[in-house]
Amino acid sequence: MNKGAEYEVRQAGIDDLASIFHLGEKVFTSHGYSNLYRTWDEYEVTTFFNQESENVLVAEDDGKVVGFAMGTTIEKARSAWSYGHLVWLGVEPDYARSGLGSMLFDRFKRLMKKQGVRMLMVDTQADNKPAISFFRKKGFENPTRHVYLTMQL
After folding, report:
1. Which pLDDT does position 39 carry in this prediction?
2. pTM for the structure as a whole
3. Which candidate in 67, 92, 95, 148 could, as Cys together with 59 as Cys, close a disulfide (CB 3.0–4.6 Å)?
4. Is 10:57 a contact under the CB 8 Å cutoff?
């Protein structure tokens, strides 16, 4: 890892999908993020890539994918605004606090502005203090708790 280095952030290509998926498996674990772990699968990656490939970004260090961001735009009927939703932001654990997540987010934000998005949304688990702190530093406000219930059948 090149701490403080300028990583290459670019639009993902089809050859990046396996790397994105496996990095997500490493980052979104049942131990750390039980809700995210339940929803992270190969279809998350392929669906975003197939439907909005322009909104799938990867960060590379020396040719290796070490981070990714995936999101979507949302148009609401009877609203002049369009919304952006950063759904997934993942960084190789060895690159935590290296500025890589910030670079990915900033690039995603510019991409959303270019697409005419007026409001950007993110969500995370209520107890994910590092993510909440990160997004507050990036200018997000008004965190709202969301209750997520499960039932085994």
Report:
1. 79
2. 0.87
3. 67
4. yes
